[in-house]
């Protein structure tokens, strides 16, 4: 498994967390499921559920000329999430 670092910008805050997974797409789903209500200001339970639903159909964009870095944006009712994903380590 690889370690993926997620750097999320949401409503003026920056939130960083990591998950272990085999590929970026399944890491995104695991990351969304690992978010806690107390971790992200202004997100709330409904926002987390909406994010988890939206992320299932999201495909991250690979950053050109940079290895192992992707980004994606999601618009949910409580705001816009901009997320950078970095494959930071192989285990």
Class of secondary structure makeup? alpha+beta
Unreliable segments (pLDDT under 50, ≥5 consecutive)? none
Q: Tally the helices: what do you get?
A: 2
Question: Total number of β-strand segments?
Answer: 5
- Elements, N to C (H/E): EEHHEEE
Strand order of the largest sheet: 2-1-5-4-3
Rg value: 12 Å
Shape: globular
Estimated share of beta-strand residues: 35-45%
| Share of helical residues | 25-40%
Mean model confidence by pLDDT: 91
| Major β-sheet annotation | 5 strands, antiparallel
Give the quaternary arrangement of the chains.
Answer: single chain
Domains counted in the coordinates: how many? 1
Distance between the termini: 6 Å
Report on the structure:
The protein has helices at about 25-35, 45-55, and strands at about 1-10, 15-20, 60, 70-75, 80-90. It has one domain. About 20% of the residues are buried. The protein is globular, with a radius of gyration of 12 Å. A hairpin with a 2-residue loop joins strand 1 and strand 2 (about 15-20). The N and C termini lie close together (about 5 Å). It has about 90 residues and is of the alpha+beta class. Helix 1 (about 25-35) packs antiparallel against helix 2 (about 45-55). Strands 2-1-5-4-3 form a 5-stranded antiparallel beta sheet, covered by helices on one side.
